[in-house]
Amino acid sequence: MKSQKSLILLSLITAISLMVIKFIAYFITHSNAVFTDALESIVNVIASSFAFYSIYLSSLPKDMNHPYGHGKVEFFSVFIEGALIFLAALFIIGKAIYNFFFPIELTNLLEGVGLVAFTALINFLLGRYLLVKSKKLNSLTLMADGKHLLTDALSTVGLVVGLLLVYFTGLIIIDIILSLILGVFILYQGYKLLRQSVGGLMDESDVQLVKDVVDVLQQHRKDPWIDIHNLRLQRYGANLHLDCHVTLPNYFDLNKVHEEVSEIDKLINEKVGLKTEFFIHADPCLPQCCHYCNVKNCPIRSSEKTIDMIWDVELVTRNLKHFEKEKSN
């Protein structure tokens, strides 16, 4: 968590510095497109400030009021960043439309191009670095900040190209059109962040993460794990909460059941790459399980094994034992 705080602080300091540079570029050029870029940099500063606080809050230990920890604050951080980007984009589009009817003369374009090109390079390098670190630290906040910086860098590259066209052609309308295009692009990026944050707050299933968990279970399954069903995931920042039902031989005593459940817990925590808290409900096997049960020398088997059940997302996430799912199909 200390690493995340240091990275967000670096992002915040960089955002403030680049914001100053972009506004200097705007004041010497009076370019509507440069103003667009400078305005978005204010969003960067506000978003990085909130992200820094959310990293601190998500690092707090569980308490009576937050039994699952504080990790979901990262979704709020992503929501705030997305909302600010969305609002900034609307303002950018509005100003571009205004300047279409009331254009402003542009000055010192080459100097302005040099300044904004420098900010694009810094944002690209920092954005890539944050995305790499977000994967290692499993941080949604770092991921959102990194994507935002890359989006900022990409839009700034388009801005540089457009300003050079204005310089060589003298057509001010290019600056306005460019600002409109960047505004729509930024609007879409804000929408995607908002969509992601709302999905997380509503406990929307992370399909890829569920698939990763199911693949690990399939690859390392043990014979006594007759079936696993009703598997559900919730993500809290860098932590994962997982609950499921596992069918075990009905003659296992409590100690053996606990041992098998602990094996599943250990397996997921070692292989998935996220700190995972498990709630596993153990079901006793039934005679209907025999035809897909892998247990060797079972003392209560009522029929021979006839099929191999391959665990996939659809099979494991349904709230049905495997034989019940066969009937439902």
Keywords:
single chain, 329 residues, Alpha-Beta Plaits, 3-stranded mixed β-sheet, 10 helices, 9% strand, transmembrane, Cation_efflux_CTD_sf, membrane
Instruction: Report the top-level CATH class of the largest domain.
Output: Mainly Alpha
State the helicity in percent bands.
Answer: 55-70%
Count of individual beta strands: 3
How is the largest sheet built, in terms of strand order? 1-2-3
What sequence of helices (H) and strands (E) makes up the elements? Answer: HHHHHHHEEHEHH
The total number of structural domains is 2
Strand content: 5-15%
**Poorly predicted ranges (pLDDT <50, ≥5 residues)?**
none
- Going by CATH, the homologous superfamily of the largest domain would be Cation efflux protein transmembrane domain
Termini Cα gap: 46 Å
Structural class: mainly alpha
Under the CATH scheme, which architecture of the largest domain would be assigned? Up-down Bundle
Family: Belongs to the cation diffusion facilitator (CDF) transporter (TC 2.A.4) family.
Membrane topology: Multi-pass membrane protein
Protein name: Cation diffusion facilitator family transporter
Keywords: Membrane, Transmembrane, Transmembrane helix, Transport
Overview of the structural elements:
The structure is a single chain. By secondary structure, the chain is mainly alpha-helical. The chain has 2 domains: about 1-200, Up-down Bundle (Alpha-lytic protease prodomain-like), CATH 1.20.1510; about 205-329, Alpha-Beta Plaits. About 65% of the residues lie in helices and about 10% in strands. It has 10 helices and 3 strands. Strands 1-2-3 form a 3-stranded mixed β-sheet. Strand 2 (about 240-250), helix 8 and strand 3 form a beta-alpha-beta unit. The longest helix has 30 residues, at about 140-170. It is elongated and about 90 Å long. The model has no long low-confidence stretch (mean pLDDT about 85).
